[in-house]
Write a structure and sequence with these properties.
Blueprint lengths: L20 E5 L2 E7 L5 H5 L4 E3 L10 E3 L27 E5 L2 E7 L5 E4 H4 L2 E2 L9 E5 L13
Antiparallel strand pairs: 1-2, 1-3, 2-4, 5-6, 5-8, 6-9, 7-9
Amino acid sequence: MIKLFRTKKSTCRCRPQWPALVTEMNGYGMPCQPSEHGSPVTRLLELSARCAGCAATYPGNFIIEPGTPPPFDWAREPENTVCSCEPRWPKLMVMLRGQYYLGYPGTEGQLVVDGAAEGAFCDSCGARFLGDMAVDLTDRSHLEDPDET
């Protein structure tokens, strides 16, 4: 069979390959991550993912990153919300009570905050974190002097 139309590229030119994935939903870019089986939402809506760096179409299954807000006007954030680190979100930071604290994505912990409302970000690449995050109030390894108060 002869193809008359050129298909989109599916070879990522970035090093390392596929540093970050994004998909578009309702006109908004949403961060994604590779997944063995994909998700029912991405298949049902027939979404495609692309490399955030070179825009190559991702050939495998993917899911929208957990904690990503829905793609509606009220949820849109203008700043960068795609972490380019590997692994994703290696060092989340958030300011609480006038001091920065380390945290991690999810709701497993003693203090859970809304990353978007509290201005959480990846300390490595600067991407804004929009989901729920658990804050570790005892981890002071991010301070120059961990004994300071």
